[in-house]
Amino acid sequence: MAKNRNSKDGRSILLNLLTVAILVATLGVVAVYATIFLNPTLPFNPFPPPTANAALQEPTTTKTPAVYLPPTWTPTPDLSTATPTETNTPRPSQTPTRTTEPTITPTVDENITQAPFSPTFVLQTNSPSYTENFANDQECEWMGIAGQVFDLSGAPLSGVTIHINGALSSQAVDLYAESGSAEVYGPSGYEFVLSDVPVTSTNTLWLQVFDLEEEQPLSEKIFLSTYNDCTRNLVLVNWNLIKE
Fold first, then answer.
1. Which pLDDT tens digit goes with each residue over 29-76?
2. Is residue 147 part of a domain?
3. Is residue 149 part of a domain?
4. Residue 129 — φ and ψ, nearest 5°?
5. Alpha carbons 130 and 145: distance in angstroms, whole number
6. Total of domains in the chain
């Protein structure tokens, strides 16, 4: 029994010694780490910190001598560059663009058939004729157109409207006269006073028998000329009825 007790005591002492050794080692490691933490630059530090760069020195002030320009300073031209010469560049001529106007084609209704104009009155033979003024005492200080209208039997026909239109010496003419209103030329006479002097014109005036109520012509347009001639300052134009 004594022998077993001694073996147990020996083991206990060994374990205690091992425990004390581990504790001392642990304390030593802690002490080393604490020392390195407080002073990382120690030679036994396995991970020393990097060496800091040398501190920058404050730059020294260097005095630069002042440069003074002379009172009158003329820049020296650079002769290495040649003076450019002007080159006239011709301007392009403008070419007008012609715009073609659209062609408008009138639409014709083929179903509409216009009846040919059939006149009711025509000029009497030998009309128009020219003579000197015999209708008044103004003689050559007058110019006019006059005449008569006759029915199918050749008798004077009153109440027929004659229309004169056009221009004389750049003046527009648009007048109406009724047969029977100027009996100096006959029972069915009519008259248009155009000017106080004879005037020359070429087909700028035209006469036409006209129906004012129906607003339609009863004859073809008859174009007339006038002359600066005192022996031809009266133009006589007679009409004949050819159908009712």
1. 888 788 878 777 777 777 777 765 545 555 555 565 555 555 655 655
2. yes
3. yes
4. -130, 155
5. 9
6. 2
Question: Can you give the residue range of the structural domain that contains 186?
Answer: 121-241
Long-range contacts of 210-217 (CB under 8 A, 24+ apart): 210/161, 210/162, 210/163, 210/176, 211/161, 212/161, 212/176, 217/117, 217/119, 217/163
Report in angstroms the alpha-carbon separations of 29 from 35, 36, 79, 110, 132: 10, 11, 84, 126, 159
- The CATH number of residue 223's host domain is 2.60.40.1110
Q: How far apart are CA 34 and CA 46, in angstroms?
A: 14
DSSP string, 49-89: PPPPPPPPPPPPP-PPPP----SS--PPP-TTSPPPPP-PP
Say yes or no: 137 and 236 in one domain: yes
Distance (Å, whole) CA 131 – CA 142: 12
pLDDT tens sequence across 17-27: 888 889 888 88
Task: Give every CB contact of residue 120 below 8 A, 6+ residues apart in sequence.
Answer: 209, 218, 219, 241, 242, 243, 244
Q: What six digits make up the tokens of 195?
A: 């000017």
Q: How many CB atoms lie within 10 A of CB 224?
A: 18
Contact assessment for residue 235 and residue 127, using Cβ atoms and an 8 Å cutoff: no
Residues 128 and 29 in one domain: no
Beta strands in the chain (DSSP E): 121-123, 129-131, 143-150, 161-168, 171-178, 189-195, 201-211, 216-217, 222-226, 234-236, 239-241
Percent of the chain with pLDDT over 70: 70
On whether residue 230 sits in a domain, the answer given is yes
Instruction: Judge whether 70 lies within some domain.
Output: no
